[in-house]
Amino acid sequence: MSASAETASTSAVASRLSDLSPQAVGTGLLAAIVGFTSSFAVILQGLRAAGASDAQATSGLIMLTMGMGVSGIVLALRYRMPIGVAWSTPGAALLVVSANTLGSVNEAVGAFIVSSLLLVVAGWFRPLGRLIEAIPTSLANAMLAGVLLNLCLAPIHALAADAWLATPLLLTWWLVGRINRYFAVPAALLALVPIVIWKLGLPVDFNEQLRVSLVPSITFIKPVFEPQALISIGVPLFVVTMASQNVPGVAVLKASGYSPKAGPLIMNTGFFSLVTAPFCAHGINLAAITAAMMCSTDAHEDPTRRYWAAVVAGMAYVVLGFTAGVAVLLITLVPSLLIEAIAGLALLGSFSSAIYAALSNINQRESAAITFLFAGSGLAFMGIGGAFWGLLIGGLMYFVAQSRHKKISH
Would the N or C end of the chain have less CB density within 10 A of its end CB? Predict the structure, then answer.
């Protein structure tokens, strides 16, 4: 490297370091903690539903957390914008409701890889990205609401099954949510674990399990590309990630005064999804909620210095990735129905927003309702899950209704 190039490189590093601020550090750490703890249970439940063992699910969580950390650091430093990256929470919910179409976790990994490839192509080949963006908002939200429906019912089922454990969970969530909604779910989870330990006790070999969980363990899973699984999981996972995560993620940045090109950002998250998929990681995408936190004045008064919040969040995610094994061990102490209840609480805001957006347009309400009912049915036709059929049939109804409306107006 020449002396002038070294000087330029040193100057660039110094310039970036001078942008670092205590506000950005604090906001970045908060965003990472909220992003990790608020939907951790959803991701774990989704991977389990896809057929992953606890060891494989731990591997997926480690790779997801580290992948979104590195992806966020790269994007934030490259574009000097507070670009947040997260795991696909709606995608994990999709795994829960469509897992009956999977024959094994190997088929799930094959679907993860195909979804990741579609994300890379969507970022590179803009017509495909525009095609996904062209899906009517009402239908995309209806599919998402249908996917989330059964999980959002889980707290009610848990209350009926074990009121002694479910009641403290729900009360903690409600009380903390009145103060700060971001910490409602993490607080409920923290309150539940000691209650479960007190009531159900610890396994005899818990100390040994804890020692093993402190060492991160990555498991490679050979992918199987089963056509039915690709249609039931791979395609809907791609659609829900684009429509409910990437598009809102770009919108948050634009609403905050930043103007990134969406293609390179989606390609980046698609690439990291592809790299981590063989280790049971279902998908990485642009963040919306935590990105909004990092785009705010809390990160810094100067918008050009807020990108450090995303960098710090990325670093925190990498560190949190090493703790995923311990988190999974503690969560496995909790009965699965209560884990689903926590996941449902974490997704309640997303569900209410999605169902409102799906049904708010009276001219599109019928097609959106059909999409919602198919996606929420949990049924599979010809081995293909309801989310795909809901989007397909709802889409046909939508375009027929639109064509009829145009003819009448003319």
Answer: C
